[in-house]
Amino acid sequence: MAVKTLQNLLDEGVEGRGVLVRSDLNVPIDNGTITDPGRIIASVPTIKALVEAGAKVVVTAHLGRPKGAPDPAFSLAPVAARLSEELGRNVQLAGDVVGGDALARSEGLTDGDVLLLENIRFDARETSKDEAERTKLAKALVELVGDDGAFVSDGFGVVHRKQASVYDVAKLLPSYAGNLVATEVDVLAKLTEEPARPYAVVLGGSKVSDKLAVIEALAPQVDTLVIGGGMCFTFFAAQGYSVGNSLKQDEMIDTCKDLLDRFADVIHLPKDVVVADSFSADAEAKVVASHQIPDGWMGLDIGPESTKRFSAVLGAAKTIFWNGPMGVFEFEKFADGTRGVAEAIAGATAKGAFSVVGGGDSAAAVRSLGLPDDGFSHISTGGGASLEYLEGKELPGITALEGTA
Ligand code: 3PG
Ligand code: MG
């Protein structure tokens, strides 16, 4: 990508300049506690480099999907506290997005200070379809860093969104790719440009409809496409199996049939599954063949035989991309498939394979199962963004930076 980078900005000099950074700090929060700080930690290097170079740093980010108005449940307050800890310096939180408090605080910044704006999605213009509306918000953001300000785009997880703080603001200020965005794009480019073979992709998660485009794009390019998670039941239904109470998207059955016809030699489905009598951590569970799911039962994980087969394929792969858990890993009884696949990928990585874990859920699975981050070549901070990149779609947050170098 022909874009200017953070290093270019640092070379130009930022001491005393206002720099607006778009980060993706959208972390899972349970009762006020951050359960996976991965995205905050990944955002630190860019912010730190700017702080150390003496910039007045204004960070903007979203949390969840509030409805375009302030909502305390989606406040970035816990994120500001954690970012302070990770950065080792105080991060102020503005009480609003681009209002009086944000403006006053930005004017009070001295060199090396960091101000985090309140959740950018508290302002309905952020996600507006109307470009003029988005531009108004982008202009208000520009005001916070002043006329000689700069914009650093570092929220990789959100670059697939055409939103004011991601896309429109890049047209108003000199713009640069932050370290995280640059690294993520480099890694994903390696998957698309002559990947070492065999190349295996593992897809899980609940909905076929979410993964359809990436299946279509990747199936012709890869040697193996392993499909697990909730979406495998729609494929089973396409094969004519009855799936009991398992998740199933009826409107996708024909599409799954067509995919199985066209990519029979590439797609691997589980041969056995763990079924449960209810969706709960302490449900009664048993292993059955994929074509023998009893009425009244639901599949919540891939079975041990499938984990073994998938692990063998993955163990031989030289390039691996994984998105989506194999089962309901949040319940210990149904975590074995995801754990087994993760361990097989880590094992292949230890033998020299290049592995990328994409997506918030898969990254959270890796961490909650106690696997070390460095068992994989790269854990992406972007779920939707990494999938859209691999689908070959344009990413507005990247397009907006192009032509800067
Ligand atoms: C994510 O969690 O996928 C990113 O932060 C983007 O969030 P969004 O899907 O709500 O746009
Ligand atoms: Mg998302």
From TrEMBL:
<keyword id="KW-0808">Transferase</keyword>
<comment type="subunit">
    <text>Monomer.</text>
</comment>
<feature type="binding site">
    <location>
        <position position="121"/>
    </location>
    <ligand>
        <name>substrate</name>
    </ligand>
</feature>
<feature type="binding site">
    <location>
        <position position="299"/>
    </location>
    <ligand>
        <name>ATP</name>
    </ligand>
</feature>
<feature type="binding site">
    <location>
        <position position="211"/>
    </location>
    <ligand>
        <name>ATP</name>
    </ligand>
</feature>
<dbReference type="Pfam" id="PF00162">
    <property type="entry name" value="PGK"/>
</dbReference>
<comment type="similarity">
    <text>Belongs to the phosphoglycerate kinase family.</text>
</comment>
<feature type="binding site">
    <location>
        <position position="161"/>
    </location>
    <ligand>
        <name>substrate</name>
    </ligand>
</feature>
<keyword id="KW-0963">Cytoplasm</keyword>
<protein>
    <recommendedName>
        <fullName>Phosphoglycerate kinase</fullName>
        <ecNumber>2.7.2.3</ecNumber>
    </recommendedName>
</protein>
<keyword id="KW-0547">Nucleotide-binding</keyword>
<feature type="binding site">
    <location>
        <position position="330"/>
    </location>
    <ligand>
        <name>ATP</name>
    </ligand>
</feature>
<feature type="binding site">
    <location>
        <begin position="62"/>
        <end position="65"/>
    </location>
    <ligand>
        <name>substrate</name>
    </ligand>
</feature>
<dbReference type="InterPro" id="IPR015911">
    <property type="entry name" value="Phosphoglycerate_kinase_CS"/>
</dbReference>
<dbReference type="GO" id="GO:0016301">
    <property type="term" value="F:kinase activity"/>
</dbReference>
<feature type="binding site">
    <location>
        <position position="39"/>
    </location>
    <ligand>
        <name>substrate</name>
    </ligand>
</feature>
<keyword id="KW-0324">Glycolysis</keyword>
<dbReference type="InterPro" id="IPR015824">
    <property type="entry name" value="Phosphoglycerate_kinase_N"/>
</dbReference>
<feature type="binding site">
    <location>
        <begin position="24"/>
        <end position="26"/>
    </location>
    <ligand>
        <name>substrate</name>
    </ligand>
</feature>
<keyword id="KW-0067">ATP-binding</keyword>
<dbReference type="InterPro" id="IPR036043">
    <property type="entry name" value="Phosphoglycerate_kinase_sf"/>
</dbReference>
<feature type="binding site">
    <location>
        <begin position="359"/>
        <end position="362"/>
    </location>
    <ligand>
        <name>ATP</name>
    </ligand>
</feature>
<keyword id="KW-0418">Kinase</keyword>
<dbReference type="InterPro" id="IPR001576">
    <property type="entry name" value="Phosphoglycerate_kinase"/>
</dbReference>
<comment type="pathway">
    <text>Carbohydrate degradation; glycolysis; pyruvate from D-glyceraldehyde 3-phosphate: step 2/5.</text>
</comment>
